[in-house]
Fold this protein.
Amino acid sequence: MALMGFYSADRRPADASRTDLDRLHNLTTSSHLWTASPHRLRRGVAGTSACEALAVVPDSPYRQDGQTALAYSPGPATDRAGRGLCLVGILFEPDRIADACGLPPGTPDPVLAAAWLDRHAGASPETALNRLPGDYALARWDPQEKTLLLAVAPMATHTLYHHQGPDGLWFASTLALLFRFPGVPRHPSMTGLAGYVSALVLDPAQTIFEDVGLLPPGTLLVSGPRGTRKSVLWQPDPGHRIRMKRDSDYVEAARELLDTAVRVRLRQPRPPAVQLSGGLDSPAIAATMARVRPGVPIDCYTSVPAPSAEWAVPARHMPEERPAVEAIAALHPTLRVQFHASTGPAPFEWDPRPLFLKTGRASILAPHMGWFEPINQAMIADGHTHVMVGNSGNFTLSYDGLPSLPDLIRRGRIDLLARHLPPAARFLRRPLWPLIWGATGASLPTLRALWRRWRGRTPSLAGHSPLRPEAIATLALPEEMARWGQPARLTDISDSRVLRAYMLSAGHARNVEGYAAFRATYGLDVLDPLGDRALVEFCLAIPVEQYLIGGRPRSLARRVLADRLPEQVTAERRIGRQNPEWFQRLTAQREAFAADLETLQRVPLAAELLDLPRLKKLVEDWPADAAAAEKQRLDYETLLARGVNLGRFLHWLDGNNR
């Protein structure tokens, strides 16, 4: 489900507020719409009027069972002071929250959240919400104070977009829903678009549109007569430390946190679907679900290459994950696994306009999305509304530890470096000296920068982005990156804890935009136990060598999961490779890419932003086969595909904004 609403000032024309209210009525039911002053907007009444409205609406109005799902979703709640509150997502351990508020078990989540905030009215909203655990976004209107409160829980998979003008504030869970309000402008942000297509975070609250902001997880917005303020509820703290006596203590603590993170997200009578791979992250979730819900069938969906697929991936990658998934399913018989393959580009890879309509944003990863399209459609066909993913695992439980080697050098722990690095090199079957050189250089960033400059290898954004060099200079992107603390390469953040905290805060803010688009496209709600706040805090705080015990990268996850995954999985040296047949998929679209690039020359914003001659040259100099393409994977799978798909969005936007 999604949130949507607005408040308008007394001076705003009544017919404009009435139009906004009608938009909400058209998207939801009366039981899911809350307004404090509907009588002020009677039809035929002229003049100006204030209006406040909050609503819960389907994530995807295009999904046929959206209204059915709405019927089973809790509507707004009103507290003792007449404040209205809407919530999407879930609260964790709701019966404990109900008991603290003097309410019976089974009380709906919006009622619990309203009661919790009312109970803690003497404290600041930041304090009250920081203690309200869950994966949610909420909106509350206070008719006495005439104040709107918007909040997104720490490490949530939800977000809220908002626009504030002189006559009020409008908000929604997706850009497409926000633009349902006629008064919300749709002016592209050059800096936002440039950052998006270049995989830069920059300002986490910035979007690809001017005058449209993002409320990232762990933040709060309060708007009313005294103005608007934003504040932070919680962010990952790279300075916190946890020490335990034995290595086994860390393992037991992590297992308990993992079990809890999965359990509190199993709120539905039917377990969520699991997007299952052969790695460590999603298998950790699926196996834990099987232990937490013994005897209950759990539907798992795995993407595999098509039988006719051609690929050429490095030996350290694992393109076919079926054997590992089958071994996991054999250990846990309640896991019902389906394997699905994409035999060609999905319809939206040819024509992404349906995605633009559903999400309101560019779909630069359309080829990657297309590879997963069969399992997403299978989940919908099987009636699922929620899906478990393990996207945060690389920076929490299954962090591999190698970026932490420079930390050991800076701490003067050469003994630990000597203990863990040689066996890690043997385990990965990689030469030792490049690892030593990389760790030494990362521990001395100034020296490494001078070395790169002397060798002529200074990282350049132009080499990793489909943008015109002139656009990079005009938008001052290097300066923007420095302003927001983003280096040209993430590995240039020499403190591994700071790097991981950055990815779990600023990086996570960009990930939740993807989750919002995913919900709008498929009507599937995303749950990520490996991004659980308590697990994040623990994994950031423990000694970094815990991830390299025994000379095995990802050592913590391998040891934690030894009690629930087969050794075939926990001992795997290779890493998974999604969409290994990417070149075959792009080759099918080569002519379409060429035609689109010709068209984009006549789209002013695309021609100003994108390096179209470079992209055209890539299409002309097409690799002979998958092996040749793999050597240019960055150019084709990333730069070309992202550039063309952003251009398609700009073309669509140009036509809609005329």
Summary: The two ends are 32 Å apart (CA to CA). The chain has 29 helices and 19 strands. The first helix runs from residue 14 to 27. The chain has three domains: 2-232, 247-332+373-397+503-576, 582-657.
